[in-house]
Amino acid sequence: MRGKAVSGKAILVLCLASFLAGSLITSRTWTSQSHNNNHPIVNHVTASNKLGEFDHKLRKLGEGKAEDIMGEVSKTHKAIQSLEKTISNLEMELAVSRMSSVGNGVTLQKPKSYSNHKLQKAFVVIGINTAFSSRKRRDSLRQTWMPTGEKLKKLEKEKGIVIRFVIGHSATTGGVLDKALDKEEAEHKDFLRLNHVEGYHQLSTKTRLYFSTAVSMWDAEFYVKVDDDVHLNLGMLATTLARYRSKPRVYIGCMKSGPVLSEKGVKYHEPEYWKFGEDGNKYFRHATGQIYGISKDLAAYISINSPILHRYANEDVSLGSWLIGLEVEHVDDRSMCCGTPPDCEWKAQAGNICVASFDWSCSGVCKSVEKMKYVHNSCGEGDSSIWKSDF
């Protein structure tokens, strides 16, 4: 750098020489490629070979049996379904990357499931909605259909089924209720704690937060919410969900359309009844709140748009409203809302084991603490069923 300075004229000549040399080499390369790609004989041979292969496949298919033809059609259909789901996943990831913010000053946070943070893979996450006062209900599930301890860990590892009791905290954080729950959690290790103040009139908020939190912790194919007074057959649930794993956006449960209650003081009163039209109108179709499940894309959608999703008085209506305007397949599966014995018992004896059982009159199993074991013995699929299930 400190040697004799090079004149500007010499630099100019050197640059021109380099440019000409580079152009000559590039031109020869392009000519060679163009000669190979555009040669009419080469193109004709390639096209002829492809047509010959296609004609051979058609003749082979035509000469085959009807079963072979149907098999090929079935494979093609499955391939198309798989492609649709892949496209849907890519669309969702693209939407996540684009939607870092929206108008009106609302910021949408990107869920961890679509970040570089590696999440635990799962087939389904089952969140059991519970309350501080429901310790006996939780124990009744632990003693019947819900595995505990090492079996719970084994279920996650071998079957990809995650089960957690979902609960927030009390209005006085760190109080007696929270301490009692901390002790129970240390004993069983089966809770998903939310940053949420518990309260009956906050169920829509809790549901929204459950899906957002679950998506940020597990990369699952499905996310299910169930109440703590409902009997569940895990093997049947997994088998049922597996039938829809090729679908990109699925909302599954017992679909209903109940009346919009405008009268104050009644149970399930809807303060925003006027939004649903005239008095006496019914809600749009939505899954009953005792149990429902949604696929991965829908849970991610809720997580992404959480700050601007409207909450109605009833959480099942709220979830239905979040999904009603989307391209979603609503699956009405009546095996998810069987009655308690003798209903589910008769069905089990006939080989139609129910996914979930409860009493409509109680919005769950009536006197569930006392009756859950009886329902389990009468309508349960057998404790070994989930381990034998192939999904």
UniProtKB/TrEMBL annotation:
GO molecular function, one term: galactosyltransferase activity
GO annotation, cellular component aspect: Golgi membrane
Entry's EC annotation: 2.4.1.-
Enzyme class: transferase
The keyword Transmembrane helix is assigned to this record: yes
Coiled-coil ranges from the UniProt annotation: 73-100
UniProt main location, coarse: Golgi
Cofactor: Mn(2+)
Biological or metabolic pathway of the protein: Protein modification; protein glycosylation
PANTHER family referenced in this protein's UniProt entry, alphabetically: BETA-1,3-GALACTOSYLTRANSFERASE 8-RELATED, BETA-1,3-N-ACETYLGLUCOSAMINYLTRANSFERASE
Name of the protein in question: Hexosyltransferase
Organism: Gossypium darwinii (Darwin's cotton)
